[in-house]
């Protein structure tokens, strides 16, 4: 039985891995073509390749569910086409045990996906976006059409590029009085966060002060900047909620609840990440049930076509229910869990009919 488990597991693993490479490869090529439109003087084709390559872990994380569905359809289709599944069933191997053998390699992809989504892609996404903005906009001038705008109290700030770990480039700060009169404007080429002391250090600072009857300027090599802003806060503002790790999303939801602010967008991202293993299980279960049921006698090409159709349909429904839950106010958890529950129950129903 151990040899049978290894054979099925290896076949499914290779199929899912191959599907993942193909799907991610197509997306990477499309992203490179699209990103070439942003090529400028300091941002060349090599930088495009580095940017897309750095963001590829996020692409892998996004396509693991879809690739698991296609891979299981393909891998099980090979076993069915070679009559290996028929021999297994005739030898007394139950359908449930075969499903278990198929799910074992899928669990490995779930584990890898969780590691990528929680620890790798948030850091790499922020680094890729920060490098892209830095190369295109630099550290010597402000470009208000790009970068990040943020305010704290009476201060409004703009950063050309935000890197993980507390490194900012092109830092522009405007300080206003209570009467909303501009008092000071400053520009620093770079600012780094001192985590031990809890403040920022600006470098190459140019300061302009606006007084009642005159304007004064000052230049400094370094200046201490006391602020409640932290690298974690900036990460929340730079990355989309779906790109944040689960722990950061949870902290942001708690913070917004304390401020009596709307948390729906972050709750949607939170539950999508937490329940992604169930998404993969649901899609794979539907794929397995189709191979043993309606697609038992179909060609490999048709099985893959059905898998692509199921994956796209699931994605469309999921993407529609999420925003609808925010607009109409029904529970976000229902919007995420509804398609998953349908896949699980539908897959189990087909398997029961096939068994």
In short, what is this structure?
The chain has helices at 2-35, 45-81, 84-90, 95-137, 231-238, 246-258, 264-274, 276-292, 300-328, 332-354, and strands spanning 148-152, 155-163, 167-176, 182-194, 199-210, 215-225. It has 355 residues and is α+β, with helices and mostly antiparallel strands. The protein folds into 2 domains: 2-135 and 275-354, no CATH class; 148-238, no CATH class.
Low-confidence stretches: none
Count of helices? 10
Helical content class: 55-70%
Radius of gyration using CA atoms only: 26 Å
The termini sit apart by 20 Å
Q: What's the structural domain tally?
A: 2
Element order: H for helix, E for strand = HHHHEEEEEEHHHHHH
Keywords, separated by commas or semicolons:
6-stranded antiparallel sheet; 355 residues; 6 strands; alpha+beta; 17% strand
């Amino acid at each position: 039985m151990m040899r049978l488990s290894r054979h099925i597991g290896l076949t499914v693993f290779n199929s899912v891995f191959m599907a993942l490479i193909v799907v991610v490869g197509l997306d990477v090529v499309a992203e490179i073509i699209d990103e070439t439109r942003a090529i400028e003087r300091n941002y060349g084709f090599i930088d495009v390749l580095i940017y897309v390559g750095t963001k590829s872990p996020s692409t892998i994380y996004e396509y693991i569910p879809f690739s698991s569905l296609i891979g299981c359809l393909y891998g099980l289709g090979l076993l069915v086409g070679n009559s290996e599944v028929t021999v297994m069933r005739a030898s007394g191997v139950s359908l449930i045990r075969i499903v278990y053998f198929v799910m074992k390699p899928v669990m490995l992809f779930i584990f890898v996906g969780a590691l990528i989504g929680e620890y790798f892609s948030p850091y790499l996404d922020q680094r890729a976006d920060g490098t892209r903005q830095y190369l295109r906009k630099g550290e010597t001038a402000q470009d208000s059409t790009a970068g990040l705008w943020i305010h704290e109290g009476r201060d409004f700030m703009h950063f050309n590029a935000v890197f993980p770990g507390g490194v900012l480039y092109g830092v522009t700060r405007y300080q206003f009085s209570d009467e909303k009169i501009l008092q000071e404007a400053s520009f620093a080429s770079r600012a780094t966060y001192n985590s031990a002391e809890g403040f920022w250090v600006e470098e190459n600072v140019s300061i302009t002060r606006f007084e009642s009857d005159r304007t004064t300027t000052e230049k400094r090599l370094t200046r201490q900047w006391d602020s409640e802003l932290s690298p974690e806060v900036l990460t929340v503002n730079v990355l989309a909620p779906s790109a944040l790790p689960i722990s950061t999303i949870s902290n942001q939801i708690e913070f917004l609840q304390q401020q009596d602010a709307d948390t729906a967008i972050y709750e949607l991202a939170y539950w999508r990440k937490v329940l992604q293993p169930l998404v993969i299980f649901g899609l794979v279960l539907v794929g397995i049930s189709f191979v043993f049921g309606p697609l038992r006698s179909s060609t490999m090409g048709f099985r893959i076509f059905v898998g692509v159709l199921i994956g796209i349909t699931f994605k469309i429904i999921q993407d529609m229910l999420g925003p609808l839950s925010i607009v109409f106010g029904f529970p976000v958890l229902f919007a995420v869990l509804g398609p998953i529950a349908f896949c699980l129950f539908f897959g189990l129903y087909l398997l029961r009919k096939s068994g």
